[in-house]
Amino acid sequence: MAASTMPLPATARAQPPVGAAGLAALSRPARIASWLAAGWIAWEFGHYEQYKLTGNEGSVYLFGILSDWLGTPGGEKPFRLFVAIQEIIAAVLVLLPWTRVPGAVLSFATMAGAIFFHVVSPLGIDPYGDGGVLFREAVITLGAAALILVLHRREIPGWLSMPGRLLRRM
């Protein structure tokens, strides 16, 4: 076999761009869309943290219904604070170019869980009687996270292989 057609060893293969390098590899419209989606997610999560973290009556009501439905009466506060912390972490990660993909994954998972609980629990799609604003915003945020994952799809293999690369260095 000629040297030019020999496959590269696994260690010599180029790794997919990850983080800021992945953002730089996008076209200008894709970079703008990525920033807009990340901004929406961070704003949306940040806006609702004031209710979750302060024990707002509406937030306590919502998580109380979920807690009772899950068979953990009285577990509203830990459940509410866990979701709040998870959303804060996702908001920070998604805003930083070098952690946008993990932030989008966490955002997607959080919103998928929220949509699931709105659909299958007694909470319903319109728990506050406002036409389902909370549910609609969860769907938009899920879409924004999905958009980021589609735009940064070439980075995903690099993120998935990262634990193995770190272990090999030890």
Question: Could you characterize the architecture of this molecule?
Answer:
This protein is mostly helical and 170 residues long. The protein has one domain (26-169). It is built from seven helices and no strands. The protein has helices at 20-24, 28-54, 57-69, 76-95, 100-120, 133-151, 156-169. The longest helix is centred in the N-terminal third of the chain and has 27 residues, at 28-54. It is elongated and about 65 Å long. The mean pLDDT is 87.
Q: Mean pLDDT, rounded to whole units?
A: 87
DSSP summary: helix tally: 7
- Broad shape: elongated
Fraction of residues in helices?
over 70%
> End-to-end span in angstroms?
35 Å
Number of strands: 0
- Structural class, from secondary structure content? mainly alpha
Which runs of at least 5 residues are low in confidence (pLDDT < 50)?
Answer: none
Calculate Rg over CA atoms.
20 Å
Order of helices and strands: HHHHHHH
Number of domains: 1
Amount of beta strand: under 5%
Largest sheet geometry: none
